[in-house]
Task: inverse folding
């Protein structure tokens, strides 16, 4: 146990711990990138970082500010074109982990990064869009999602399906012909959710230190299923915290 | 054979009102100066194509140059949303913006089909998402060999493809390196092309992994040092991250944007 840490730090550490050494990970910018870079500096030095700009095996010495940051190209095993990264590396299922965030997620792990409210032609808020996520969510062997939890982001059903989790429930991925397993973990600042083996509904399995079940339920827009007596995650170690803070200090501003 | 032109000549000759144009660049080597020249020349009714429309597309949209956007992720990389793009979609300001939305994999394959001279591309994508329902440019095709149903997307063949590169020689052979995204495909898919370069050199130095566009595959080359600013050109300049953050604040407000447009967007040389 260490001194104090924030819920955000716990989230980044928990997300990093979910990545295994030697795996190939397709990394989105923001929280996933922070976690993947933390993992490579702690328990998973051989983690292969792949960014959609075409950098294979990037080993950045600071946090990249975007998926096309020059530090990724400078340190990569290879830089390939964008058609190649999607067609040769992602599509055939060569990538172990897809690491995604989003604006909304529903109880079956479907993600929205397209519009909020209204309809597609007349949205309340227009978001950046799906980018690489639809095929990352479909083709990586497993998907990890990292998002801050609130009733605005964890909703009964998303306003737009930008990328598919478990669709309408168990068996839907198979019916759709999606090749990867789908979102095996959703990691938030309050805990970790995993799909129920029978229903594929996201179920709270672990709590962050200091969070309780009622707090997580209150930050979830559906009637959240919870395993009996969810375990509490191990707090960040001194090393994890130090490395995470050093990493965050490598960039200016509020980039996650 | 590529002609060496000034930026102003090149945009004037190659880009017409109503054209579809692709200013490609993946965080790196974004042809921003060329976009500003399009704003200055007051081009209208353009269909803007790009996988990752960012600040320069926000500026083109806010300046009223665009009728339609064909894209897969429209944001301010590392910062957040594009406010001029949002305002156009949500409030039709300064004019309505039609959108044709894809995933990155879909857009990359559309350019690859365009560069290949094929009518469409196939990919294993979009399945289960709400994207296909919003455009007639995502359909399915059945594999004649296995019966698998795959996504089909039409080739993207812009009237004009514009990219920025590090170097060209005096004959118009172009070389770029680092993250080269979908730039080669965008140039080869387009009917006409313009490459702005950091510098024109006597002789290109061969570099492992570099992309070379031979002079006979490019319509025009213009020497525009710093033409990617605020994005970066590996070996020449760093990304100006503070510009991206400043744009977030400036672009939220229509009046502030219009003031930027008058003082910098329409200034003789690109804002830098």
Result:
């Amino acid at each position: 146990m260490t001194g104090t840490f924030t819920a955000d730090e716990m989230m980044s550490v928990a997300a990093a711990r979910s990545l295994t050494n030697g795996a190939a990970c397709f990394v989105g910018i923001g929280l996933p990138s922070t976690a993947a870079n933390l993992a490579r500096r702690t328990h998973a030095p051989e983690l292969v970082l792949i960014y959609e700009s075409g950098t294979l095996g990037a080993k950045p010495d600071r946090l990249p500010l975007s998926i096309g940051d020059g530090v990724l190209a400078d340190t990569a095993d290879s830089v390939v074109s964008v058609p190649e990264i999607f067609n040769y590396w992602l599509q055939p299922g060569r990538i172990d982990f897809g690491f995604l965030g989003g604006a909304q997620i529903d109880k079956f792990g479907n993600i929205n990064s397209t519009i909020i409210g209204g309809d597609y032609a007349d949205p309340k808020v227009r978001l950046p869009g799906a980018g690489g996520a639809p095929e990352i969510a479909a083709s990586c062997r497993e998907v990890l999602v990292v998002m801050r939890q609130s009733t605005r982001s964890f909703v009964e059903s998303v306003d737009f399906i930008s990328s598919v989790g478990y669709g309408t429930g168990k068996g839907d991925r198979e019916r759709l012909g999606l090749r990867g397993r789908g979102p095996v973990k959703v990691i938030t600042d309050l805990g970790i959710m995993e799909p129920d083996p029978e229903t594929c509904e996201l179920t709270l399995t672990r709590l962050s230190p200091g969070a309780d079940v009622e707090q997580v339920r209150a930050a979830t827009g559906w009637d959240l299923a919870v395993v009996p007596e969810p375990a509490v995650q191990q707090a960040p170690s001194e090393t994890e915290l130090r490395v995470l803070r050093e990493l965050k200090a490598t960039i200016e501003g509020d980039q996650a | 054979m590529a002609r060496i032109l000034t930026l102003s000549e090149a945009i004037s000759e190659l880009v017409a009102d109503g054209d579809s144009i692709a200013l490609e660049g993946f965080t790196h080597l974004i042809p921003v100066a060329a976009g500003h020249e399009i704003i200055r020349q007051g081009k209208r009714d353009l269909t803007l194509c790009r996988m990752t429309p960012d600040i320069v597309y926000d500026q083109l949209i806010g300046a009223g140059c665009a009728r339609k956007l064909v894209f897969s992720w429209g944001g301010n990389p590392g910062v957040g949303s594009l406010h001029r793009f949002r305002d156009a979609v949500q409030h039709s300001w300064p004019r309505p913006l039609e959108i044709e939305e894809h995933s990155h994999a879909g857009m990359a394959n559309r350019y690859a089909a365009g560069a290949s001279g094929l009518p469409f591309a196939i990919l294993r994508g979009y399945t289960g998402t709400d994207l296909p329902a919003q455009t007639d440019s995502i359909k399915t095709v059945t594999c004649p060999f296995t019966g698998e149903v795959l996504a089909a997307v039409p080739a993207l063949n812009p009237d004009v493809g514009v990219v920025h590169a590090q170097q060209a020689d005096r004959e118009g052979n172009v070389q770029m390196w680092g993250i080269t995204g979908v730039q080669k495909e965008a140039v080869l898919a387009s009917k006409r092309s313009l490459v702005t370069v950091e510098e024109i050199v006597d002789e290109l130095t061969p570099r492992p992994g570099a992309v070379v566009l031979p002079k006979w595959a490019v319509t025009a080359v213009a020497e525009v040092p710093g033409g990617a600013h605020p994005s970066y050109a590996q070996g020449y300049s760093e990304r100006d991250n503070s510009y991206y953050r400043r744009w977030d604040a400036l672009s939220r407000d229509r009046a502030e944007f219009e003031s930027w447009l008058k003082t910098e967007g329409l200034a003789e040389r690109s804002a830098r």
